[in-house]
Amino acid sequence: MSKLLTINKNPEIAVKELLTFLLEKEKVSGVFSLRKVNKNGAVDYGLITDKSHLDEIVPLHPLMPINAGQVLSRFTPIEKPIAAVIKPCEFRAFIELVKRAQGTLDNFLLITYSCSGVFPLKNNVNGSINDQLTGYWKATEKAEIPSGIRPTCRICEHFAPTNSDILISLIGEETGKCKMYLNTEKAEKFVDGFEGKISSEEFKTSKLDSLKEKRIKEKEEVFSKINTEESGLDGLIDVFGRCIGCHGCNTVCPICYCTLCDFVSANFDYNVPILERELEEKGALRLPPDTIFFHIGRLSHMSFSCVGCGQCSDVCPANIPVASVFKKSGERVAGIFDYVPGRDVEEEIPVMIYKEEEFQELGE
């Protein structure tokens, strides 16, 4: 049975006070959180060890400048404990990296929350997010989909991970009270001594069913517009044909885990002899080359572990719906194995499992 820590304060204030408590009592050596960059509302992620800088943090702010799962993996191995406030898709991305031996859960206190989604990166640059925050938090309180958030957030079904150390209930909750569910013994140990009411209570996922249904309907509509399974290669060319080969999507992707990526090497560039031979055979070539192959390679490599954070679509200068394609493809593949990326650190990645009966099915 999980423990529930109830604090009669606004969640943002309560979280900041908890992080201050953890740093002051030296239960953690640092705090990883979103923090303000300027008065326009722009934020970045920061690792803070001096409590005087905690005034800058906005841990529940609906922006994602980078998927934090990717950043936390770079802290491995780390000896001193860190409290990290991250979004559900960032938490699940980190779990997937831990499975690939590119991260560890040791010495992290991972705090996440029921998430209504985040706004596109452009809102982090032009300051427009300040005008949208009131509507966002009203929608969160009513368990509705806020307007203006990323398309992938509108279709996400895994927005309240109950396997984080601490889960903060935001969706459908009144703003003057903060509910923190302590899901692990580690969480109970860290918050010991912090002011608040402790009781025994499990997080009720049923309270999110209405919002989940709304997001499923949105997902069905988005997926219906991506019909590459019917149009085959021509459909993929229609979707990815305008790719300029910048590789921004795999740079920001937390699940693109290869230390050395073949696609960012010169292996697929045309040298002069190949260029001349291809031109002789075809008469015309697309440049840059092999952009479709790049996306197909990524799809086959890691789409089954896509956590739907939407970073790839957000940074694409050609406005390709990369995240929607990957989510649709990944769900179909992972669904065969009843696999949900980031659901459980002990759950093995399908592509890394080999069963004898599978070879029999292939006639081996």
Shape: globular
Amino-to-carboxy terminus distance:
47 Å
The helicity comes to 25-40%
What Rg do the Cα atoms give?
Answer: 22 Å
Number of strands: 8
**Structure class:** alpha/beta
Strand order of the largest sheet: 3-2-4-5-6-7-1-8
- By DSSP (H or I, 4+ residues per run), the number of helices equals 15
Main β-sheet, in a few words? Answer: 8 strands, mixed
- Average per-residue pLDDT, rounded, comes to 89
Taken in chain order, the helices and strands follow as EHEEHEHEHHHEEHEHHHHHHHH
Strand content range: 5-15%
Poorly predicted sequence stretches spanning 5 or more consecutive residues: none
Number of structural domains: 2
What are the defining features of this structure?
364 residues; alpha/beta; globular; 8-stranded mixed beta sheet; 2 domains; single chain; 15 helices
Task: Tell me the layout of helices and strands.
Layout: E1 3-7, H1 11-24, E2 30-36, E3 43-48, H2 68-72, E4 82-85, H3 88-99, E5 108-113, H4 122-126, H5 133-141, H6 151-154, E6 166-169, E7 178-182, H7 185-191, E8 197-200, H8 209-224, H9 228-240, H10 248-252, H11 272-282, H12 291-302, H13 311-315, H14 322-336, H15 356-361
Parallel strand pairs: 2-4, 4-5, 5-6
Antiparallel strand pairs: 1-7, 1-8, 2-3, 6-7
